[in-house]
Amino acid sequence: MDPRIAELLGIDLDDPQVQRENAAIDRDMRLIETLVGIRRQRGMTQADVAERMGRSQPAVSDFERLGGDPHLSTIRRYALAIGVDVFHAVSVSGEASETSSTPARIQVSGWGSETPQTFGTASIDLKRAAR
User: Fold this and answer.
1) Exposure pattern of 68-88 as b/e (b: 16+ CB <10 Å)?
2) Which residue ranges are recorded for the region named Disordered (predicted)?
3) Which of 2, 29, 15, 20 is nearest to 104 (CA)?
4) Pair 63, 74: CB distance under 8 Å
């Protein structure tokens, strides 16, 4: 967030809770950007994805627009339509756990590939983000 806008809105960008929220928003945007990048890499149009999802092309366009807030079920349907799986990891803030070091990843499931391919990984230091 632009510091000037944050100041006008009375948002303290140094607040750990605000930093965690901003990090979560950034992860969400990277997920959508990665999915859209895979769609484009595969030569699929929004209309192709819409047909596979049982939705309209404008609905897919809305999904791909940054700043949106799609439901988890919509993300899953979009991912399935382009032939990938999205894996989730849950970690309790401030506690060390196995999942805290597990990177989020987007993985190809099939599409002529015997071995799943990882298209993007993101590893977040949750202890650091919770500060």
Assistant:
1) eebeeebbebbbebbbbebee
2) 93-131
3) 29
4) yes
Three-class SS of residue 84? strand
According to the per-residue pLDDT averaged within each range, which of 13-17, 45-49, 90-94 is highest?
45-49
Look up residue 49 and give its amino acid.
Answer: V
Q: Which helix (H) or strand (E) holds 107?
A: strand 104-108
Over residues 63-95, the pLDDT tens digits come to 999 778 899 999 999 999 999 999 888 877 765
Percent of the chain with pLDDT over 90: 40
The contacts of residue 2 (CB under 8 Å, 6+ apart) are none
In sequence order, which residues have a C-beta less than 8 Å from that of residue 51 and are 6 or more positions away? Answer: none
Alpha helices, DSSP H only, in the chain?
3-9, 16-41, 46-53, 57-64, 72-82, 126-130
Q: Give me the domains of the chain, ranges plus CATH numbers.
A: 3-82 (1.10.260.40)
Structure tokens at 67: 């700043």
